[in-house]
Specification:
alpha/beta; TIM Barrel; eight-stranded parallel beta sheet; two-stranded antiparallel sheet; 37% helix; globular
Length: 247
């Protein structure tokens, strides 16, 4: 079962820290890394710190990240937050195309371009958007969904209860710790996404996802738990890759 380590907005503007996180994820047994390709013209609150570009990734560095991930034995894909970034993902064949909930809500031009590419598309939706997603599925057969909450961090009592089917395949977790991940695995989630952090203490107004992230030890535990479930289910999830959901 695929476990996605989300690295968006949690590397302090340091390419070295981002690369260090990828190496840790590989050591812990993680297989998938996701980054956001931010647009400083749209999200200055995330990209600009003390007048300097802070978390943007350009095409050249994205190529470098893909190379590093290949060397480390992990697969890279991205959430494009501007149309050029979506073109980069198509050019570098970074699939699935991940549409975050903010883009899903307010950047329909990016969502529609991704869907019309006919490539695999994975969207994050809130429980209140299930009806809209069902309508979307009627027009596009290349889209799957994760259910999430946009609070950083999300309280366990506010974590959504998800009903999984062929289109709602997983859970994007923003709670503290791993309890919500274990809960959703038990309920039938076939895909988990959770932010990854080098240090929970880096939580700040610029990087609000650290508290709800997993570290290297937690990722290792989650990978082990997922493998145990595979054994108990007689290899029910055996060798399933992320892109298999679109086959």
């Amino acid at each position: 079962m695929p476990i996605i380590s989300e690295l968006s907005n949690q590397w302090g503007g340091s390419h070295q820290k981002l690369i260090a996180a990828i190496k840790q994820i590989s050591i812990a047994g993680g297989e998938y890394v996701k980054v956001q390709l931010l647009d400083s013209n749209w999200r200055k609150d995330r990209c600009i710190n003390n007048g300097k570009d802070y978390l943007s990734i350009d095409f050249k560095f994205l190529e470098e990240l893909k190379e590093i991930c290949t060397e480390e034995g992990v697969s890279l894909f991205c959430s494009p937050l501007h149309e050029d970034a979506l073109d980069w993902c198509l050019q570098l064949e970074l699939f699935p195309l991940k549409i975050g909930n903010g883009v899903f809500k307010s950047r329909k031009e990016i969502l529609n371009k991704a869907l019309n590419s006919e490539k695999p598309v994975l969207v994050s939706i809130e429980s209140s958007e299930l009806d809209f997603f069902s309508e979307l599925k009627q027009d596009y057969d290349n889209v799957k969904a994760l259910v999430t909450s946009r609070n950083y961090p999300t309280l366990l009592e506010d974590s959504p209860i998800v009903e999984y089917d062929g289109s709602i395949i997983g859970f994007s977790d923003h709670t503290v710790g791993l309890s919500a991940c274990y809960f959703n695995l038990a309920r039938g989630a076939k895909l988990l996404e959770k932010h990854y952090s080098l240090s929970h203490s880096w939580q700040s107004s610029m990087e609000a996802g650290h508290l709800g992230s997993m570290n290297m030890d937690q990722l290792s535990k989650l990978v082990s738990y997922e493998r145990d479930i595979g054994i108990m289910n007689k290899n029910f999830f055996d060798n399933q890759t992320l892109l298999d959901f679109w086959v």
